[in-house]
Each structure stands twice: as structure tokens, then as C-alpha cells.
Amino acid sequence: NLILGSNYIQSHILHFYHLAALDYVDITAILKYKGKDPNLNRIKAWAKEELESKRPGALAPFLPRYEGDYIADTEINIAAISHYLKALEMRRKAHEMLALFGGKMPHEMGVVPGGVTEKPTVDKIASYLYRLKEIQEFIDNIYIPDVIAVAKAYPQYFKIGRGVENLLAYGVFEEDSDGTKKLLSSGVYFKGRKEITPLDETKIAEYVKYSRYSSASGRHPSQGETTPQTEKEGAYSWLKAPRYEGQVMEVGPLARMVVTHMSSKNEKVSSLISKTLKDLNISQSSLFSVMGRHAARALECKVVADRCAEWVNALDPSKPVHTPYEIPAEGNGMGLTEAPRGALGHWIVIKDRRIENYQCVVPTTWNASPRDDKNQPGPIEQALIGTPIKDINNPIEAVRVVRSFDPCIACAVHIMEGGKEIKSFKVV
Predict the structure, then answer these.
(1) Rounded to whole angstroms, how far apart are CA atoms 371 and 93?
(2) Counting C-beta atoms within 10 Å of the first and last residue's C-beta, which end of the chain has fewer, N or C?
């Protein structure tokens, strides 16, 4: 839990400040800075030098960008840039927290079947807690207030990017030995219902009508195949289209927080959501939106960070860190958890102590999935439909919608032909 929780913290801070905030904050405002902060002055000098050089890629990765209705207030922009830099430091500390028990970050390697490899010590516990307390202060005093400020500056984005309004969560952060009690609940929410449906993983199937695979469509992941078919007619994605009971499902922080809230299994989650809805003067249905996703991610970051403080204080250095596990000669296995971006499932078939088949359905497979065999668009596709675009050459509104899902680029790399500039879209 401490390893995964540290990853949640760094991932959520990364997403808002370093992947999404610059869709709203005007980075060029730094050129107007007149204060004495040495870090901001270094950024200002660098930005000025880059722009004056006129070389290709100047001011990357901040420019080029889509132009649009960025925040106009210079002071707010400069404060946001300062927080951008502070967030880098907080991410580093979260990486260090994870590495204390996971060996390294990213791609930690300290988890083995049955537990972990690293023994906790008093020094490691103290080191973890020292860093965590600073991050908690950042979340409470900077991260959540910044998200609220952006949400108030762009209230229209509580109506844009609503999407499918079906949610799926596997549940995460087990707090008992049999895995029945979790910090964030499992369950399924269907649009318009007032209750959460218990999760049944047998109802998951993957469809490939519009995916570049020749595999059979509609299979459960445990029987899945992944056979590429590059030139498949009608296909437009390297992602499959996972569905639950044949329905399109959104996964991620919004799904986890709403499912947990509606399950009434975590008083803190419900309290945070209720307070935020009141502060923003919005209804719960408004969470199905661009800003709703950002708010859910920030609140979840606080929930996880605060619980990490309890978990680390509960560690007993004298106890074993793993239970011995022997790989069977034959068998089937399934692992369901929640990555920061959403529901993550792995399915394995073992034969003669070797892996015969291994299939993954990752968060971005759900959220960025193409149409399925019933021609139902995926969650991001549905969220984009109806989005008002002021300037087709600067579709920043569409970018904000997509970015709110925190899609994983590596999960679905697409190669597009160049020289074919898109001028208009028709979504049927």
C-alpha cells in the first residue's frame, strides 16, 4: 500500500501540474515577472533567451502550444508557474518515498509474489514520514486550492466532457488479510442509478471490430488473444474495446471516488466530495466533466496521502515482509487492482511452469478504447462529442477534454501520416 500509494501521489501531482495545468495557465506570463524569487528569475531569463534565439523548438516543452482562453491574470499565472516548479520537488520526494520500500522509481522492482523484498526499518519509516508530511502540506495548501481556483476560472468545464457516465472500479488498497476491506471500493455505477452494483469480473469482454487485431471479438480477457492485423479494414486503433455487460465504462480517479462515495464505505471520501461540491456550488452530476475529473484526482491524492501516514506508522520492522509462494505447474491467475489512471487487470495461464498466455486490460484501454462491435464509442470519444471548438486550428477545448482522462501514451502509440492537416471533423 505504501509503495502504490506513493505512486498515486506522484502521478496525480504530475498529471495536474506537468501534463494538464498548461492547458489553462499562460506560461509566457513569466516574462512579466518582477519579483526576487531566484527560481522564477532563472525561468524568466531562460524563456527570454529561448524566444530571442528563434531556433526551432525554442521554449520546449512549453511551446509550441494551442492558443486559447488562457488565464489572463499575470499574478495568478506566475503563482501557478511557481507551483509548477514546487510540484517537481514534491514528485521527487514521492519517488524517494516509494524507493525506500520499492527499490527504485519509476518501474520499482521490490514486489514479489507474496509480498515485498525490502524490510522496513525505523530509519526508513522516519524518512518516509518526513517526506510525506511535506507532501501533505503541499496537497492541502497548494494542490487542492489550485484545482479549485482553475475550476472557478473555467466553470463551463463542469458541463464539457461529460462522457458516458458509467463508472468501473476494481477497488484498491486492501486493509485486511483477505482483501475484502479496501480504502477505495470496488463496484460499478451505471448512468442514472442511485446504487452501486457489485463488481463481477466475468462480465468483462474485449471487442476488436475497430481494432487492428484479427483475434476473435467479445472474449473474456482470460481467453484473449492479441494477433496484430495492420491493414484491417475499418480499424482505426491499436486498442481493443473492453466493455462491462456490453456497456462502455470510464475508469480512473473519478470512478474510484464516486463509487466509494456512493457505496458509503469511506466517510472521509464522502465528506471531501460533499465539501467540494458545496464550495464550487455544483451538483454531484457535475463531476462527470473535465473539471470533475481534475477535482476527483486532487481529492483522491489527499485521501491516499493521509492514509499513507497511518499505514507507515503501523509498520512493525520485526514482522516478515512476504509469504513464501511456489509457482504451480499449471494454473490460471487473475490480478485486479487500480493503477493511478484506473482499473488494471492482468490474466495469466500457466502450463508446465511456463506462461502460456498473458493478457492485460489497462486503464487507457478502457478510456481511450475505439468503438465496439455495437458501434458504441469509447469513453474519451463520447466525452469529445458535442464539445464546442472555437477555432478548428487551435482545438484547445478538445485537448482539455482528452487530457482530463490522463491517457497513457505508451498504452496506445499511434503512427499518423504527415502532410494531411485536418480542417474539419464530422462525428456521427
Answers:
(1) 40
(2) C
